[in-house]
Amino acid sequence: MFDLTPPGEPPDFAGIGIKGSRGLRFENLTIQGAPSETATNQAIGVLIETVSGASTTGIIFENVAFRWCKVAVRTADTNNNSELSFYDCLFNENLIGFQCLNHQALVHKFIGCVGGGNAGDDEISSGVPNQYQAMECMFDLTKGGNITVVGFGGHNIETFVKVGDAGGNTGWNLFHNIRLEQAGDDDENTWGNTHRTKLYAAVAAGGATNGQRTEFDGIVITPPGMGTPYDGGTTRFSLLDGHTVVVRNASRAAGTYQFATPASKLVDFPSSGTRGGTIRCFNVQVAEDARLDRADVPSIARYSFTECNDDNVPYPDLLHPPLYGPNYLMSVESHCFALGEGLQGVAPIEEGGGTVTSVTPSDSSHAGVIGANTNADGDVAGLAGSTNAILLEGGSWRFQAAIRVPTASASGDSFVVRVGFGDIATAEPANALYFECTDTVNSGNWRAIVRESGSTTQSITSSVAPTAWRTLEFLIDDAGDCRCFIDGVEIDPAQTLTVPSAALGLLPLQIERTTPISEGNERRAEIDYYKYEFRPTSRGAMYPE
Q1: Cα torsion for 163, 168, 169, 175, to the nearest 10°?
Q2: Between the CA of residue 85 and those of 59, 214, 377, what are the distances in Å?
Q3: Residue 208 per-residue DSSP state
Q4: How confident is the model at residue 545 (pLDDT cuts 50, 70, 90)?
């Protein structure tokens, strides 16, 4: 055991210093950077450097414990500190676990290691703060990288990986099978209730050649044992230009503890420094509204999410078949660039003085838009199927459309907008499942309704106004229960609609005037795209063997 009690606390005092050496092995050691956990003169446990003309490589640590260190292991700002190996090592009660300070500190591996804060009480004794209740950072890759971590467990780690400009030599950092805990359950042990572990923080941009590339495969973060998980805005991943992150198979530990939430999202692009970076997620249990703030994504950033939603069952489409069923699907998607071009299964509705035309999009994010316009009382316009040939049964259905109503319905200037399925195209349907907005119901906001035999039998209301672009969505399961979403957020998870049994027609957009208006002051509803999909429970005649 090395008990490091440096006189005068030199800034880089170290228990073991290695310079220009190769092929060393350290086993069954405990290295303490301070005489006790109450002391503040933490030293560096192992400081690895090079001398001119020699490299430091092939150093192995096995069954070595590091405690109470400022930095447990540091590769200094000298070249050629490569190929360090750590087997079954303990990085516990240190401020920083492993730190690289040079671009040539490369190709390190950690197998079966453990680290983090001690998760004890906030104070070691009366009036003495517990400086080791949490670890500031486990892997500080300010420079260097190319590390491989397999089977790491720990608790109370503020930032698991910190990265910077890695130089031109860094390939991938790989993290496999990571389980982190946040401990804190009472008045004397609160860190896990007041902090949220960040998995990845970029602190310096890497640009086109020097960014770090990191993959996480298999991550679980558990909540405080008896406390309240902190949900104060800390994202799991913070990216800057040049950094690439791939996340696979990350999950929450329990239904009450989300891997990311709408308040504490999965990824952000920090406002300071050069913003950007790329993140790709596969099979990560994160709801759509908890992924990132789309309004704050810079133009140089990139992201994608595959098979990622809150219940780990992807929406069925041609590229992402569900995990639970056979891979056969009918999928129709139409983008509304112009009438007759790309529209599948529908034709314009023009009843009375209603008209359907292409319109200039309201912003550059919408490449093509069709508008349905009305003036006089009774005018109807929109897009609809020609026959009632859809039975919303026999399997799972999904309908989605992007809609905007530039001017909301108002008293004396009233109209109704409908989006979904219905059996009448030129008036209010008798049997239908659609979203609807009008000034006389639900304060003009969107609501989802079911109509049967001429009466509204079910409804789910939202607080979402129709005047901005919204993506309206129905998701119907095999039993005919329908969940309703706006912009990917379920409007009332406690409620579902039961789809009508009657045959329906496709009704991606319908606007019906209910009071007249002077000529030239028409009211309009706009559609950017619509999509509908059906996955039968059994193949039958549709998909014969």
Answers
A1: 30
A2: 6, 19, 78
A3: H
A4: very low
